[in-house]
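Kindly go through one protein, given below as sequence and tokens. The question is how this chain folds according to its tokens.

***
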Amino acid sequence: MNNKLKPALIGGVVLGLLSVIPFVSAANVCCCLWAIVGGLLATYLYVKNSPTPATAADGAILGALAGVVGAVISVVLGIPVALAMGPTMRNMMMSLLERVDPRQADMMRQQFEAAGDAIGPVIINAVIMAVLLFVFSIIGGLLGVPLFEKRKGGAPPPPPINVGGPGGYA
């Protein structure tokens, strides 16, 4: 298990940090891209250093471990970042929307004012995102095995045991 831990930690840290950084995290809108990348990275690092060919189970385990690490980082760092960047992101979205459709911008502004700066929705969003990161990192780990593992199965099977004399009869 230790040979899986280091690649999973690296993949999970990359996944977690990219999912938290403002604007960069927007790529997660595309099928949780950073989660898939984290699972792929963990599998790639494992395959590169593994003496035996990786299996689909190895990819799933690596993706799951990377997903747990990334989800924890995403929750622990994501909530404070979301609370700090929320007003900035909201203002950017409103200015963009005002250029496109001023009436829609007024409706959005009213909804934002009604919601306020509550922490509850931020926490709920972080937990949902953590679950999605976990699931999609497993998918990334599973995809990584056929992409990166080019070695064939393990060692060839041993020859049959010859019981008795010539011809195998007792």
Residues 13 and 43 are 14 Å apart (CA to CA). The chain has one domain: 2-150.
